């Protein structure tokens, strides 16, 4: 793999939802989710001069929770005013210990934390837009003000919040990379016998998003 030469003036690491709620023992665990923490810390301690993080931050009774829809179960889909919505177990509850950024995550180079999903009526996967595709988080303006052009994404989950963030970043004109060892996915069944991880990867690669290894930075 060709080595990637980073430019501190225009490159930034995006750390997506690295919270205990998405790790084994949490409310919505991603298999192997805890393994991304030391990998991300290596990136923070080494090649990247700048980073931002996102934090899922739901109020109790959020509309994306299966518990808010009597008779519905987690991972079913319902139609919301903004389109289809996967229902989730209650997770990332505001102020809870499992909603905090993982305590082992090295904070020194994390310059901004974007909280998303705090509006009760709409879920939020992307670091840039809530699921209505209209409500912005403000991240795009922050990155543009700082002259950032390339985004390197890490975190949870590959097929949901990382993928939606990568897709929006590409549409907004950034060059986008997903660091494979620094991500883990949920992997729900998808059409054609694939998983949601497979489908997300195909969709993103079709948009020009590159999946890269840690070895690209050594």
From TrEMBL:
The family annotation for this protein states: Belongs to the isochorismatase family.
User: What enzyme category does the UniProt record give?
Assistant: hydrolase
NCBIfam families found in the cross-reference section: PRK11609.1
Name the keywords, alphabetized: Hydrolase, Metal-binding, Pyridine nucleotide biosynthesis
Indicate whether Signal appears among the record's keywords: no
Provide any one GO MF term from the record: nicotinamidase activity
Q: In which pathway does it act?
A: Cofactor biosynthesis; nicotinate biosynthesis; nicotinate from nicotinamide: step 1/1
Q: What are its E.C. numbers?
A: 3.5.1.19
Span of domain Isochorismatase-like: 15-186
Q: Name one GO biological process term.
A: pyridine nucleotide biosynthetic process
The regions listed as transmembrane in this protein's record are none
The protein's name is: nicotinamidase
């Amino acid at each position: 793999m060709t080595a990637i030469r980073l430019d501190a003036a225009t490159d930034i690491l995006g750390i997506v939802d690295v919270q205990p709620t998405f790790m084994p023992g949490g409310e919505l665990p991603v298999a192997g989710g805890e393994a991304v923490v030391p990998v991300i810390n290596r990136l923070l301690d080494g090649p990247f001069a700048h980073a931002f993080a996102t934090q899922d931050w739901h109020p109790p009774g959020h509309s994306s929770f299966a518990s808010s829809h009597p008779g519905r179960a987690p991972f079913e889909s319902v139609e919301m005013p903004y389109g289809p919505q996967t229902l989730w177990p209650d997770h990332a509850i505001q102020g809870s210990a499992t909603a905090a950024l993982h305590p082992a995550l090295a904070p020194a180079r994390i310059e901004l934390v974007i909280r998303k999903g705090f509006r009760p009526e709409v879920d939020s996967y992307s670091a840039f837009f809530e699921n209505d595709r209209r409500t912005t988080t403000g991240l795009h303006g922050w990155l543009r003000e700082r002259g950032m052009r390339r985004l390197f994404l890490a975190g949870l989950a590959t097929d949901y919040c990382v993928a939606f963030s990568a897709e929006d970043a590409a549409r907004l004109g950034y060059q986008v990379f997903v660091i494979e060892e620094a991500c883990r996915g949920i992997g729900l069944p998808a059409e054609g016998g694939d998983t949601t991880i497979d489908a997300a990867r195909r969709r993103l690669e079709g948009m020009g998003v590159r999946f890269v290894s840690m070895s690209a930075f050594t």
